[in-house]
From TrEMBL:
Transmembrane regions: none
Subcellular location as annotated: Mitochondrion
Keyword terms, alphabetized: ATP-binding, Coiled coil, Kinase, Mitochondrion, Nucleotide biosynthesis, Nucleotide-binding, Pyrimidine biosynthesis, Transferase, Transit peptide
GO terms for cellular component: mitochondrion
UniProt record similarity statement: Belongs to the thymidylate kinase family.
Record GO biological process: dTDP biosynthetic process; dTTP biosynthetic process; dUDP biosynthetic process
One GO MF term: nucleoside diphosphate kinase activity
SUPFAM superfamilies: P-loop containing nucleoside triphosphate hydrolases
Chief location bin: mitochondrion
Name of the protein: UMP-CMP kinase 2, mitochondrial
Catalytic activity: CMP + ATP = CDP + ADP; dTMP + ATP = dTDP + ADP; dCMP + ATP = dCDP + ADP
Amino acid sequence: AAIATCLSDVEQHRSSQCAARIPEAGALLDLLEKCPERQQKGGFPVVVFEGLDATGKTTVTQSVKDTLNGILLRSPPDCISQWRTVFDDEPESIKRAFYAAGNYILASEIAKASTQAPVIIDRYWHSTAAYTIATEITGEVQGLPPAHDEVYQWPEDLLKPDLVLLLTVDPEERVRRLQRRGLKKTKEEAELETNSLFRQRVEESYRRMVNPACQEVDASASKEEVLKTVLQLISKHCAL
Ligand SMILES: Nc1ncnc2c1ncn2[C@@H]1O[C@H](COP(=O)(O)OP(=O)(O)O)[C@@H](O)[C@H]1O
Ligand SMILES: Nc1ccn([C@H]2C[C@H](O)[C@@H](COP(=O)(O)OP(=O)(O)O)O2)c(=O)n1
């Protein structure tokens, strides 16, 4: 399934002539091969936060982690994030193999952490899927694969979270937050800012994901209000 695809993608790139150019692909594959397959979740809830850049994921995940005494994780996981810039400059298929592999490596961390405390995650599979789907077409959301297409399914061999919250803010507020933050953006995020059709395709892809689907949260309110809404949703959907 998905892990096989991303393994073969990375393997292909390791064994191809570009391997000399991307030695990190070999190191990534070694890490991936060490991860046990079909990881099981522990007894604590696993909650994922998704959304476009600057919708407030970092802010809210930190607060939720503090409130619930939880463990905060992100995709791509810290153990491979030093290679991110290398893969971000590669062609689309190599870049996506990196992010896909990162989700499987993260699954091992989630399995372990969820035996200790609630796990809060900043991006996971839905990010990889939504940005990939949105990149593969151009133009309006009408051009996306139809709702219920299998591209919107969660990979059957990847550990599932209990709850996925999709943070959305209106485009003007999002740009204000991006500007206020003033951090260096990934190339793709710079493009997002200017390309509103791409942004719409990413959000619509997020909304079509199923099993688990994303629950949308309007994140335009103040940090305190957003935190309150999110904590209510978590206590409604997860046994804490
Ligand atoms: N609810 C909010 N209202 C106003 N500003 C916010 C809110 N949440 C986050 N911000 C600000 O917006 C910027 C982007 O937030 P951040 O949490 O880094 O988003 P992300 O992790 O989704 O990229 C930051 O400068 C942050 O302080
Ligand atoms: N699990 C993940 C995480 C990120 N990605 C990709 C999707 C986009 O190209 C970028 C977004 O990452 P970026 O660092 O800009 O986002 P944040 O600042 O963390 O909100 O990474 C992914 O494909 N899969």
